[in-house]
Structures are given as structure tokens and as C-alpha cells.
Write a structure and sequence with these properties.
By secondary structure, the protein is an alpha/beta fold. It has 5 helices and 6 strands; from the N terminus they run E-H-E-H-E-H-E-H-E-E-H. The strands form 2 sheets. Strands 2-1-3-4 form a 4-stranded parallel sheet, sandwiched between helices. Helix 1 links the parallel strand 1 and strand 2 (55-60). It is globular. It starts with 21 loop residues before the first strand and ends with a helix. The relative contact order is 0.23. The mean pLDDT is 96. The structure holds ligand DLZ. Ligand DLZ binds at residues 27, 29-30, 61-65, 86-89, 95, 99.
């Protein structure tokens, strides 16, 4: 499926989130981007029936911390899914590669360990403009995509139980 806009989806294909408990963890780095992604995710969860008290919002210093924070939240608060929100922008240093590699592998490991959806709403871009374009700009909002993915993956897991 080729998607041109991260905010476009078929709302009739999204499960009702009433009764779901979902964590949303956002990195503080590049807050103009992660704040917009967080808003997109939370608004979308609300629109699809997730109750306010069942949306667990937390912040961590940087994208690198997202996987360990998701692991802690799953262990101590037992949500149905966790959406991890971050933004890493390519710079002069190799930090970019280390952080992107660590968070993508870390999120995968946490999802497999807990058998819960852990969603990768992390933008990894060359420039700030490319990130803003995907945080409510011309390419939509990756936080919205993350919320829709979380709802679908919770329903997928429940369909197997
Ligand atoms: C150190 C660092 C750098 C250089 N760049 C980013 C970034 O673009 N986005 C981001 O979310 N975090 C960055 N960080 C911070 C790391 O994610 C992490 O918080 C620190 O290395 C401490 O573990």
C-alpha cells in the first residue's frame, strides 16, 4: 500500500477503542515536532473512543530512552499498547545512526518481550523541515498513523486470544 499522507486512513476500518488502555511516550528533543505528533496521537485515540483516563501520557528526555520507558510502562502499568514518539534529525555526528538503530531494535525487543504492540512513531529525517512536514505538515502526522496502528494491533492481538 503506497501512502502519500500519514494522516489519511479509512476510519471505518479502525476498531473502537472503548475499553482500551494505551500509553503514549514522547521524547523531549525537538519538542515542536514531538508535541505535534503527541497531539495527533492523543486526538486520534479520543476520536476512536479511548477514554481520557485510559490514555497514559509520559515524557522522556530523548528518543534513545523510548524503548526502556515503554518496557517500564508495560511492566508497571500494563497498557494494551504503547505508542513511542520521537524525532531524530541527521546531524554531523554519528549519534543519528546510534539512536535510530537502538530505538528501532529496542522497540521491537520490548514488543516481543511483553507480547503487546509497541508502536514506532519516530521520525528519522535529514532536516527539521522534513520532520515538520510529517508532524502535521504537507505529509500529514505520524502520530495519527501511530494511534491508528495501535488500535488495529490491539484488536489483532485480541482476535487471537
Ligand atoms: C544526543 C541526542 C542527539 C544528538 N540528537 C537527538 C535527536 O535528534 N533526537 C532525540 O530525540 N534525541 C537526541 N539526542 C538525545 C538522545 O536520544 C538521548 O536522550 C541521550 O543520548 C541520553 O541517553
Amino acid at each position: 500500500m503506497k501512502k502519500t499522507n500519514l494522516s489519511e486512513y479509512d476510519s471505518t476500518a479502525v476498531p473502537d477503542g472503548n475499553g482500551y488502555r494505551i500509553g503514549v511516550i514522547a521524547a523531549e528533543w525537538n519538542p515542536e515536532v514531538t508535541g505535534a505528533l503527541l497531539k495527533g496521537a492523543v486526538d486520534t485515540l479520543r476520536e476512536h473512543g479511548v477514554k481520557e483516563e485510559n490514555i497514559l501520557v509520559r515524557h522522556v528526555p530523548g528518543t534513545f530512552e523510548l524503548s526502556s520507558a515503554a518496557d517500564m510502562m508495560l511492566r508497571h502499568q500494563n497498557p494494551d499498547a504503547v505508542i513511542c514518539i520521537g524525532c531524530v534529525i541527521q546531524g554531523e555526528t554519528r549519534h543519528f545512526e546510534f539512536i535510530c538503530q537502538a530505538v528501532s531494535q529496542g522497540i521491537t525487543n520490548v514488543a516481543l518481550k511483553h507480547e503487546r504492540p509497541v508502536i514506532f512513531s519516530v521520525l528519522t529525517t535529514d532536516t527539521m523541515q522534513q520532520a515538520l512536514d510529517r508532524a502535521g505538515g504537507k505529509h500529514g502526522n505520524k502520530g495519527i498513523e501511530g494511534a491508528v496502528t495501535a488500535l488495529k494491533m490491539i484488536a489483532y492481538r485480541q482476535s487471537l486470544l
